[in-house]
Design goal:
binds uridine-5'-diphosphate-glucuronic acid, alpha/beta, six-stranded parallel beta sheet, 14% strand, 18 helices, 14 strands, eight-stranded mixed beta sheet
Amino acid sequence: MRISMEKRVSVVGLGYVGLCTAVFFAAKGYKVKVSSQSLEKVEQINAGVPPFYEPQLDNLLKTVVQEDNLVAVLGREEAILDSDVTFISVGTPSLPDGSIDLRFVCESATEIGKALRKKAEYHLIVVKSTVVPGTTENLVKPTVEKNSGKIAGDDFGLVMSPEFLREGSAVYDTFNPDRIVIGEFDEHSGAVFEKLCKLAYGDEVPVLRVNCPTAEMIKYASNAFLATKVSFINEIANICELVPGIDVVKVAKGMGLDPRIGSRFLNAGVGWGGSCFPKDVKALIAFSRKEEFKPLLLESVVRVNLEQARHVVDLMKEGLGKLEGRKIAVLGLSFKPNTNDMREAPSARIIDLLCKEGAVIHAYDPMAMKDAKEILGDKVNFSQTVNECVEGADCCLIVTEWDEFKKLGPDDFVKLMKVPFILDGRRIYDPAKFLDKTKYKAIGLGNGNRG
Ligand code: UGA
């Protein structure tokens, strides 16, 4: 049952996690086969083109495809049989009640099992998808065993190793992980995977070996904690606004200097979104409730986040009065910069509320316009440039902190807008500079405050 360590890897599921993992191992000289059920995706990847935007990914993918280290194939079997290790990185979306949908994990485990029935040698399975505690041992293991006729721990290895990459810096994070968590079904599986990681990532990265459910929980607890941190600072920001002279940016700086708190993820704003925090916090809540535990803090974290959209609209109304018929320029639509991802983007929540108030929305995003059109449709007039978006507007709301917007100065708004009212939802501008020339309001900035 020793693994050959021939450096052959397969990846099932080609979202951010799957494709970045695949590109990483290919860049380290491993022979990587990725599989998809879509011919279009296979052809695209084999042409070196990522199916989504992510900084640095296109160049790297092109290189590893040209070097023949990464090949996409249709269907799972060929990829699995041509490798020693298979990563499962399929999506785990939400069901309507917020609980996790494990359909794709189950399908992958079934197909891996069927393929392993045809293989004599030891094979390691690594679950990378975010799954609720118990999934690897209670769903993946029995499904693979049933379909392969083999025994976990003896004939194949099984580990759960959560991924902590962030969209927008997915390639950097994949190549430079803070830690590697290995949830092992058995000691040998853990040892094989640790060896693989040490070879690929080097000896410097801290490795934590635990059991599978603990690894699964580490991922949820990490995302839930980060979401809590952001909801916390957003609530503090809203309180700061009540007191002239307080600025949440400085409050967060002062808090962050305490190493017990840390400065990261204390940027107050319009709320959190994306494909992970909302889905994972909801899944953890649903999981707890199913086990008859009431996760009161996590439920508040979600509520505070959803309320933040209402708070943004209230700030706008404080500055403009009635919003009916007013032209509102929304700068930034994606859930954060450097991605075209619109999943659970705060922009959509805010725009919904603005529409209900009768506002006329014009919006611009450097990257997410196509995806935004699918979600927002005719609620929004899409502009081709910042200038077109802002021209004649009664208020400009900054929703996503793209670099392109950070470069703008007060004069850029004054010369184009009907009323130069800037609502800075991401704290990208210096209040002192903007208050001199514009009507400037910002999340967490007490009225009349110059920052
Ligand atoms: C998040 C985690 O940060 C990753 O560690 C994890 O691997 C990933 O989820 C996942 O589970 O796949 P991601 O969703 O890409 O990564 O984005 P983040 O950078 O965490 O931002 C999430 C949201 O929080 C964004 O809407 C962002 O604007 C918001 N945020 C973040 C703030 O409003 N303030 C902050 O200080 C930080």
